[in-house]
Amino acid sequence: MSRQLTEMLKGTLEGVVLAILSGRPAHGYEITAWLRAQGFADIAEGTVYALLVRIERRGLVDVRKVPSEKGPPRKVYSLSAQGRKDLDEFWKTWVFLAERLQRLRKGDK
Amino acid sequence: MSRQLTEMLKGTLEGVVLAILSGRPAHGYEITAWLRAQGFADIAEGTVYALLVRIERRGLVDVRKVPSEKGPPRKVYSLSAQGRKDLDEFWKTWVFLAERLQRLRKGDK
DNA sequence: TGAAACTATTCGGTGTTGCTAGGTACCAGT
DNA sequence: ACTGGTACCTAGCAACACCGAATAGTTTCA
C-alpha cells in the first residue's frame, strides 16, 4: 500500500464504511469484499474489523449475531441514529476538504 | 477541531502544503497564514512546522534561511524535484479516492 | 481420513500523523 | 518595562491503518 493512500484513508475509511452501511446492513467479511471490489484492493482485513469495533463502541452501529451457513457466526452491523448523524457530518467535512483541494489543484496558487 | 477533519487531514495536509509550494516558495508562518485564510481556520501552528521538518528530511523541499525585517530569520521552503514527483503522486492518489467517494455519495450502494 | 480452501473474526505491536500546550527569539511602539 | 506581532521549535499524546498471526467453522476433493 502506498504511504500516501494509507494516510489519506485515515478518517475517510470510517466514512466509507458508514456509507456502505447506510445502504444495507452488512458484516465485516462482506464489507471487506465490497471494498476490494471497489478498488480498495489492498485494505488489510484486520483494518476493517478494528474499525467496526471502534464505531460499535461509539454507538454508530447496532450489531446482531447471525449464524452463517458457512463458517463461524457473522456479526451483522447496521447504522444507528447516531451513525446516521455521523455520516452526515462526515459528508460535510468531506465536501469542505474536497472543495479546497479542488481549488488548489486548479492552480489557485 | 472536529475529530473527523483532524483525521482526514492526515495525509492530505502534506499534499496541500506541497501544492502551495509548487506555486511559489514560502516560509512556515506564511503557509500557516495562507491555510487559515483558505478556511483551514484552526490548524495549529506547530502542526505546520512539524510537517515542514518532515518533508525536509525526506528531501521534498529545499530550504533557504532569509533574514526578516521583523522577527527572527525565515526559513523559505521551495519544492525540490522529488517534491514535485511526490505532489504528482499525491494528486493521483487524491483523484483515486475522490472518485470512489463521489460514487459512494451519489447513492451507489 | 485428511488437508486444503474458503468463510469469518480477533489481537498485539508498529509507524505515521495532527493536536495540545507550551517555549524561544527578535523587533516596534507605548 | 511591557505588550503585541513576527517567526520558529518541541515533547508528549491520541487516533488511525498496517502487519502478521492466530482461532474456528464448513465445504471440497483426493
Task: Describe the model.
By secondary structure, chain A is of the alpha+beta class. Chain A has four helices and three strands. The first copy, chain A, has helices at 3-23, 28-37, 45-57, 81-105, and strands at 26-27, 61-66, 74-79. Chain A has a three-stranded antiparallel β-sheet. In chain A, α1 (3-23) packs across α4 (81-105) and α2 crosses α3 (45-57). The longest helix of chain A is centred in the C-terminal third of the chain and has 25 residues, at 81-105. The radius of gyration of chain A is 16 Å and the shape is globular. The two termini of chain A are 30 Å apart. At the A-B interface, α1 and α4 of A face α1 and α4 of B. Chain A binds a DNA duplex (30 and 30 nucleotides) through residues 1, 3, 6-7, 9-11, 13-14, 27-30, 32, 43-47, 49-51, 53-54, 68-75.
Instruction: Please give the oligomerization state of what you see.
Output: homodimer
Total beta strands of chain A? 3
Largest sheet strand order of chain A: 1-3-2
Biggest interface and its residues per chain?
A-B, 36 and 36 residues
Residue fraction in strands of chain A: 5-15%
- Alpha carbon gyration radius of chain A: 16 Å
Question: Stretches of chain A where pLDDT falls below 50 for ≥5 residues?
Answer: none
- Helix fraction of chain A? 55-70%
The geometry of chain A reads as: globular
> Main β-sheet of chain A, in a few words?
3 strands, antiparallel
Q: Helices and strands of chain A: which structural class?
A: alpha+beta
Counting DSSP H or I runs of 4 or more residues, the number of helices of chain A is 4
In round numbers, the mean pLDDT of chain A is 93
| CA-CA gap between termini of chain A | 30 Å
Order of helices and strands of chain A: HEHHEEH
